[in-house]
Design a protein that fits this description.
binds nicotinamide-adenine-dinucleotide, 7-stranded parallel β-sheet, 13 strands, binds thymidine-5'-diphosphate, 42% helix, two-stranded parallel ribbon, Rossmann fold, alpha/beta
Length: 339
Amino acid sequence: MKILVTGAAGFIGTNFVYYELEKHPEDKIVGLDLLTYAGNLENLDGCKNNPNFSFVKMDIRDRKEIFDLFEKEKFDVVVNFAAESHVDRSIENPEVFLKTNILGTQVLMDASIKYGVKRYHQVSTDEVYGDLPLDRPDMFFTEDTPIHTSSPYSSSKAGADLLVGAYHRTYGLPVTISRCSNNYGPYQFPEKLIPLMINNCQNNKSLPVYGEGLNVRDWLYVEDHCKAIDLIIRNGKVGEVYNIGGHNEMRNIDIVKLIIRHLNKSEDLITYVTDRKGHDLRYAIDPTKIHNELGWLPETMFKDGIVKTIDWYLNNKEWMEKIVSGEYQNYYDSMYKNR
Ligand code: NAD
Ligand code: TYD
C-alpha cells in the first residue's frame, strides 16, 4: 500500500510516519509538508534513509503541484494531518486557518477523486464539538454530538469535516474522519501547553496559566492516536466518524503543577494571565465506538506518558533550543508580553 501523509513534519504527522514504517514495513510512505513554522524536517531524520519513505515539500493548497504528485505516485490512501493547528494563533489571524484547513482539504479530496484514492482519511479534532460544562462530569462527546465550534481553528476544522462528509455523499469519495482529544508526546511544538511549560520550567521562566487554570482537557499519548488512525484506515467503515480519547481528563493547573514537581522547580513560577478569548471549558471524549468496532484502547497511562514525554524533551534539548532561538521568540513576546 502507498500512503500519502500530509503534515508529516509536524507533531502528530512525524509520530505517525515512524509508527507506520515500523508497524507496516510492507507499505510505502510519502511524507508531504509545507514546512511552516510548525514543520521541522529534522523530525524525520530517523527515517530519511528508509527505502520505504520519501519526503516532498509542498503546499496542500497548490492544486497543480498536488495533482501532479497524485498522478505520479498513485496513492492508495491519503491521511491528512496538514493544518494550522494552534487556537491562539487562529484568534490573532483566522485567514490562513480557513485557507489551509478548508481549501487545502478540498484540493486533496479533488485529487483523491481524480486519481482513484481508495481511502481519504481526515484527521480532525474533538474541538469541533465545542465544549462541555465543568459541572457535568457525566457528559461526553459522542460521534452524534452536534458540531458547535468556539474558535476560528475549530470552525475551520469543522468546515473541513462537513466538506469531507459532502464529498462522500455527493461524489462517493471513500472517506473516514477521526476526532481526537488533546495529544501529548515527543516533537510537539512549544506553543502548546505541555512542551511550553516543560521548556519554561527548565529555563526558570514564568509559567503562563490562562484564567484560573481550571479548564479541562482529555489528554492522549500521541502513539495511541497513531495506532487508532492506523486501525481506521485499514479496518474503519467508509463514511464513518470515529472519536478517539482515553478518558484522561485533567485541569490545566494540575498538569502544570505535575511538570513543576517532576522538574523539581517551584510553584512560584506559575503566573496567572488573561484568559484566552472564547476559551473552551472542558473536552471529554466517549471512545465507545472505536473500542467496540475496531478494538482500540489506549495503551499508555498518563502517569507514564507524561514522564516519557518530559524525559524526551530533557534528552532533546537541542531540538527545543533550535526552535525557541528562531522566530518563536517573536511569537512568544507578542502572545505573552504584557498579558
Ligand atoms: P502541527 O502544527 O504540529 O503540524 C501541522 C503540520 O502541517 C506542520 O508540519 C505544518 O508545516 C504542516 N502544514 C501547515 N500548512 C500546510 C500546508 N498548507 N501544506 C502542507 N503542510 C502544511 O499540528 P499537529 O498537532 O501535529 O496536528 C496535526 C493534525 O491533527 C491537525 O489537523 C490537527 O487539527 C489535528 N489534531 C491535533 C491534536 C493535538 O492535540 N495536537 C488533536 C486532535 C487533532
Ligand atoms: P493548547 O495546548 O493550546 O491546546 P487546545 O487549546 O487546543 O486545547 O492548550 C491546552 C490548554 O492549556 C487550554 O485550556 C489553554 C491552556 N494554556 C495555558 O493555560 N497556557 C498556555 O500558555 C497555553 C499554550 C495553553
